[in-house]
Structure formats: C-alpha cells, structure tokens
TrEMBL record:
Listed EC numbers: 5.3.1.24
Domain N-(5'phosphoribosyl) anthranilate isomerase (PRAI) residues, every copy: 5-200
Reactions the enzyme catalyzes: N-(5-phospho-beta-D-ribosyl)anthranilate = 1-(2-carboxyphenylamino)-1-deoxy-D-ribulose 5-phosphate
GO molecular function: phosphoribosylanthranilate isomerase activity
Record-level GO BP terms: L-tryptophan biosynthetic process
Homology family: Belongs to the TrpF family.
Biological or metabolic pathway of the protein: Amino-acid biosynthesis; L-tryptophan biosynthesis; L-tryptophan from chorismate: step 3/5
Name assigned to this protein: N-(5'-phosphoribosyl)anthranilate isomerase
Gene: trpF
Keyword presence, rRNA-binding: no
Short name of any one Pfam family annotated for the protein: PRAI
SUPFAM superfamilies referenced in this protein's UniProt entry, alphabetically: Ribulose-phoshate binding barrel
Keywords, in A-Z order: Amino-acid biosynthesis, Aromatic amino acid biosynthesis, Isomerase, Tryptophan biosynthesis
Length: 205
C-alpha cells in the first residue's frame, strides 16, 4: 500500500489545485493565528468549494475556542480536524468529526502510551518537539523513537522535504506523510516544483 501525502499550510487556491493535480491525498489548512500559514475560515472554505472530489481537507487547530472551530466546520461537511494543542480525547471527539491528534515527540516520551490516550482518533500525527512552538518548526526528530507498532495509523511530520522523505518512509513505514515548509518557496507559498517532486518521491518510495 502506497504512502499517502498531506500538503499542509495551504493559503491560496493556486497552491491547493497544484497539490491536487500532482496527487496529494489531503490538504491542510492552519487555523492558528500565530502561524505565518494562517488562513481565515472564510478564505479556506472558499478554496474548499473549488477542490475536486476525493481530496480530504484537514482543519488544523491549536487549543482553539469551540465557537471558532465551529465557524470553520459549518462551511463544509468535508472537513476533518487535526488537533495540535493540549486537547483531550473527549474534547476532540465532541465535535463528532473524524479527527487526527498531533503529538510532538521528544526523547523519553512513551509514544505508545500517548497514542493510546486518544482512542477516538482516526490517526496520530507525530511532529518534532520545540519548546513553545506547537508545530511547523521544520525540524526533524529522531525517527528511531517511534515504536514499530502503534495502535493508530501514523502520519509522519517534522522537517520532511524532497531530500529526506524517501528515507523517512523506508525507516518508519508511515500510513501518510505531512509536509509544509519543505515544499515552500516562501512562508505560506508553495513551490510547484517541490510539491510535484515530493509527491512523486512518496508515491515511488
């Protein structure tokens, strides 16, 4: 089974359609105001209205207020959620949507136990830990910390790029990989060539 690809940090329609054209399985939209890749609910839902079928739109939140999350989700039944903060499993599940839970990995973590804390998650995303930064650091973490078997499908993030994604897939065998900064030409703007190359490398890994 080939590895899936999520292109995260989408801020405009052109980048979204380029990613879809080259074979992305999912697109991530960042609803965290401190991120340089932040997009408003209105702009994101306008993009979603023009996406082709079978593309999964993922709404990323970091300890967001319920009314703000609802303002995104009301735009489409297609949204699934990626929780990137300190949300509990019960809080995540309360939205009655398919969700992923992101965990930031550092040495000494019992990853299996952390994953088991989210029994309602459809998948677990593992990202690099950096103090005070909830994600999108562009840093690679030590893949050897990941257990060989987890109770949930694994989405691997953290500093992935065309230069290292095949090595990551070979080492970790994730269900999917997630990239943002590694395929950008500037913050929030994707490089068409990097997006195309990244997806090609994943699909041929």
């Amino acid at each position: 089974m080939s590895c899936r690809v999520k292109i995260c940090g989408i801020t405009n329609l052109e980048d979204a359609l380029i990613a879809c054209h080259h074979g992305a399985d999912a697109l991530g939209f960042v609803f965290y105001s401190k991120s340089p890749r932040y997009i408003s609910p209105e702009a994101a839902n306008a993009i979603l209205d023009q996406l082709p079928p079978f593309i999964v739109p993922v709404a990323l939140f970091v300890d967001a207020q319920r009314d703000f999350i609802d303002s995104v989700l009301v735009g489409s039944s297609r949204w699934i959620i990626q929780f990137h903060g300190n949300e509990s499993d019960a809080e995540c599940a309360s939205y009655k949507r398919c969700f992923y839970k992101a965990l930031r990995v550092k040495a000494g973590d019992d990853i299996s136990s952390l994953v088991d804390d989210y029994p309602n998650a459809a998948a677990i995303l593992l990202d690099a830990y950096k103090e005070g930064v909830p994600g999108g650091t562009g840093d690679v973490f030590d893949w050897s910390l990941i257990p060989s078997e987890l109770s949930k499908p694994l989405v691997l993030a953290g500093g992935l790029s065309p230069e290292n994604v095949q090595a990551a897939i070979e080492r970790v065998s994730p269900y999917a990989v997630d990239v943002s900064g590694g395929v950008e030409q500037s913050k929030g703007i994707k490089s068409k060539k990097k997006v195309q190359r990244f997806i090609e490398l994943v699909k041929t890994a």
